[in-house]
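ingest -> validate -> predict -> emit
validate: passed (alphabet ok, no gaps, 264 aa)
predict: started
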Amino acid sequence: MKIKNLYKEKSNTEFEKNILHKENGELEEVSTELLVEHYTTLYINDVEVATLVCTGTSIVELAIGRIISEGIMSDINLIDNIYICEHASRARVYLKEGVDFINNLNKSTDVASCCQDNKSYFKSTILPEKLKNILTLSDEDVFALANAFATDSKIHKMTSGTHAAYLYKDGKVIISFEDIGRHNAMDKIIGYIYINDIRPEECIVFTTGRVPVDMVRKALYAKLGALVSKAVPTVDAVALAKEYNLNLICRAWQDSFQVFNKSM
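emit:
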């Protein structure tokens, strides 16, 4: 897969001045650091498939991760090249000659549970596979991920405005991504896994966001070994995780967690 990325990443934040801050009865004028919203439209073979409201970093990982996590494609070896324009307003993915993707898609009518204005114009007609669950998930793994988030979430500490996702494998955190949306942060992790030819079934992904059905579905399409969250799942998400054999642990903090589905 060839990658042509013309985009030079900019800061995800800007300072907003002359903010009135009141605390303990005292009023003062301050400046505060806020997130910048970025818009990227994803195309496959010049077909517009999604518009993403995100932070303007790791757009290649976001584009590939979105394709995998939405079930549009499961093999990135079918991708010939990806092009990111100089403003990263367009991410264009071109498939190898003869590869068709549109036959496996329907027009999307789903409303995602994201809190920003992401739009998907198609949804996959192919159901995810039931996971084999070769991963052995230990208490130490969960606590290590919770601790990593507590000690290293740079943009969130500056703005209190991001979600984060962490990739954990072989007893250590490999990489983390932050984004304005939890779906995007997870997609960036998934994109990183597939771009770097890492076995997804050996990976644990930690998300700081809540876990409804669409987040579990992403983990299933990506064939992740486990999904861990500091937040809560829905009843439907737990049922889906059990049906497809996904390790799901939520309310994961430095001193506690809750197991909703786990193969030991």
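Helices lie at 59-69, 139-151, 154-159, 182-195, 213-222, 235-244.
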